[in-house]
Amino acid sequence: MSNVMYASTRNQEQKITASQAVLQGLAPDGGLYVPDHIPALDVSLAQLAKMDYRQVAYEVMKLLLSDYTEEELKHCIHAAYDEKFDDARIAPLREADGVQYLELFHGKTIAFKDMALSILPHLLTTAAKKNGVSDEIVILTATSGDTGKAAMAGFADVPGTRIVVFYPKDGVSDIQKKQMVTQQGDNTCVIGIDGNFDEAQSGVKRMFGDAAMKEELAAKGFRFSSANSINIGRLVPQVVYYVYAYTRLLAEGKIADGDLLDIVVPTGNFGNILAAHYAKQMGLPVGTLVCASNENKVLYDFFSTGVYDKNRQFHLTSSPSMDILISSNLERLIFESTGKDDGKTRELMEGLARDGKYEVTPDMREKLAGFYGNYASEEETAAKIRDLYEKTGYVIDTHTAVAAAVYDKYRADQGSGRPVVLASTASPYKFSRAVMAALGKGDDALSDLELTEKLSEVSGVPLPPAILELKSAPVRHEGICGVEQMPEMVRAFLQK
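Given the sequence above, the corresponding structure tokens read:
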């Protein structure tokens, strides 16, 4: 088996192992770690179709995390994908109106982030041991709503770790906020910022790049790492569920071995759809990757014009996890489209930091031909939730509805006729107010939590444990700060 090494998108000279890349999170030069090659699946799809989720996870992840031993990796996988998921299949498929909805929300926090953030703490603590790191690892993360809770649920009370999460205090749903501020664990800290997600993410990146702060904390026995999707320990586990979905359809006779599958992903930070692209490069028969945006349609405009421009109005939408204007993971695809030219990638990213925009060359655009981008307005998103429910009785959340509405546009534009898997990234219970309003059953007199009970009656799906727990959970985190105060808040927490 070939050993996969990792290097920064902005400097390909210094290669490190997978476990070192997981440990560091972000490269010192601000770039993202990428594999030096994408290995092909070495087990046939027919064999994978006979395996359960954990077994498929091992066969995919062993290739990209090649310096983890079989014993280490299997331990991480089994510790992550256990009874904390409320469906033994981990990521079941649900067919509705001709689309295979890949339900990625059966974990502890009822969103797709659980799929990677259940395993990341185990990958990280294993990596620390492998590399002789005795410092306490401080996970520093910005969230647009889901990552924060899923990361804290994964890291809560994990020895040798602390986690600090920043979220836009007015930019998440009530249930997302309640999930975060009630988080248990003495090693967890949640802080709302006066700003949007992009400002929170930029603040976190600045701390990662602050050499003086790193030195100061290292002297006290701390080192930073990241749980954001910029960490390859987040990205690699996401590759698994696309392979798993394909092989389930194969096992059920819904596709034949080798049939191309279109994959539709609601996209904010570009990690989830990039994982599907990596699955395709590993040999999964994938046709088009449909990149679905909400009204913050920076990615749609990029795929349409070749210009990435974040200088625009920021919209707060009913799909807040996608309210993002700087899609960090896109840098990995940009690097690939340059023919792995770290200098060109660095130049483009410096342009983004300086001017808020960059433009790719016609040659680079050609390399992005496997992607289709479009977006759904707030009205189209709500209409899709209602129409699908009226047609099939199946209730989807707002992010999934953005993807479903965009898939309708893709089908009208290009009509591939191929089978389709759509990443259903959150439970409708997480966004009960927006979902109930879309169904014409909203009630302003009820709280978001109270609306979940009404949603259960409508959908016929019992309330998930994550919602039941919230009903009696006390608030434990009340910190609020401005963007410029973020480093001081981190210092204060680490002094406790």
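The CA atoms of residues 380 and 496 lie 48 Å apart. Try to locate this feature in the token string yourself.
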